[in-house]
UniProtKB/TrEMBL annotation:
<protein>
    <recommendedName>
        <fullName>Sulfotransferase</fullName>
    </recommendedName>
</protein>
<dbReference type="InterPro" id="IPR026634">
    <property type="entry name" value="TPST-like"/>
</dbReference>
<dbReference type="Pfam" id="PF13469">
    <property type="entry name" value="Sulfotransfer_3"/>
</dbReference>
<dbReference type="InterPro" id="IPR027417">
    <property type="entry name" value="P-loop_NTPase"/>
</dbReference>
<keyword id="KW-0808">Transferase</keyword>
<dbReference type="GO" id="GO:0008476">
    <property type="term" value="F:protein-tyrosine sulfotransferase activity"/>
</dbReference>
Amino acid sequence: MHRLGGWQHRHPQAAIRLGNFDTRVAGDAIARISVDRPIYIAGIARAGTTIVLETLAAHPAVGTHQYRDFPPVMTPWLWDRWLARVPQRAETAAERAHGDGIAVTSRSPEAFEEVVWMAFFDAIHDPQQSNVLDRTSSNPEFERFYSEHIRKLLAIRGASRYASKGNYNLMRLAYLQTLFADARFVLLIRDPVWHIASLIKQQTLFEAGETAHPRALEHMRRVGHFEFGLDRRAIHTGDDAAAERIRQLWADGHEVAGWAHYWATVYGALADQLDTDAALRDACLVVRYEDLCGDAEETLRRVHAHCALHIGDDERSRAAARLRLPGYYRPAFSDEEYATIRDITAPVAARFGYGTDTVDTPP
């Protein structure tokens, strides 16, 4: 995995050529498959995107990337043919590296399409320049490859609808809608106090893990996971001053203020998109993490309806039973840190329905 993942990361053009060969091999199998109403799940990490992905992936019509698709993400057809011919050992679900109680196997859904984006867009994670892709963006080679890649995944999974978790897609929503006019977007947001507490917890965990295991850092870079760890990079929303402020706060060790500005900058940019683009707004469903956990059945009903996925009441009830607010940690901020978070995030939080009656306060 380390060697193959490294080769793919260092040689994107060769990986693209192999991906095109993979498509030719899969030609007959995907000839009649189209990309129908793809579903995109996005939000700042720790907002509930993984559990929503898992919930939607349980639907028989939905196909996603899986853990076992890495490293050869660019050649899913040939890789799947290979896996079908080698012995598969029995698996027991194990908690993922985030330490959040979510157990996975090699067949669990995961966010790997970022590997494809990085192969075609050199600066897509450059913190010094805008990471935004909008309706004016164009990359015909990527657009063809990406559509073919999705069609191959649908053929492999025996599915008719593609679902993707990609947190960086928050700044690509309009571009994705130009590629797939019928795309559906489910966008997750979380109370900033609890959200920032979870983000800081993950940053500490990943820094320690990558320090102890350097290959873990390389893996995170290769899969396009820059939210946490030793190579943490803020999404550049097109605001140079905001990007530099976040970078400097983190560099100076001001984690709370840095994350608060990051939360406000990213979700503020999202709110601006939704306010000014009616077509995009109609395709998006914003889901608050607190509603997802606190009123799970009704929230999942709205999610499935938005995505045009039929699900029975019993199935929805079983899915809802898995959702609950975390009980394994609580924010441990000082009064000054609580005030910092509220002061920085409150104007943006209010745009998503958070107010003094909903934002968590010190215990």
